[in-house]
Design a protein that fits this description.
alpha+beta; 5-stranded mixed sheet; 4 helices; 29% helix; 28% strand; globular
Length: 138
Amino acid sequence: DLLRDCVELFRNSVDTLECDIVSDAKMVGDREQMRRVIINLSKNAEQSIPQNRERLIKVQLQDIENHIVIKVRDNGCGISPEIGKRIFEPNFTTKSGGSGLGLAICQKIVEELGGQIEFTSELEVGTEFIVVLPKYQG
């Protein structure tokens, strides 16, 4: 529900918003911290898409063995390998007016929850951020 609610905030900002969410998947963690991660990744996805392109964001939540996997994909400009090396560094940004803290904070939150965050990207095709978190075992 948290993921669906966060993603819906971007429904009017893009042309197509696809959600493929396993409804009963649960993880252990602070709800507000996870909200921050999801909104930041979705906002970055939205902002990466040029205005002259159909704007697509796809969000997936998968329940795989002992993990919850969240994927946020866009069809934006992509991330060059040079920038990709620094993408999680605090104060690193490619945006004018950006603080460069968003992805660094996301990484810190995800790692504090015992998870990992990574990305794949292709220039002028898009980027996909992948968050892997331990599944709630209750």
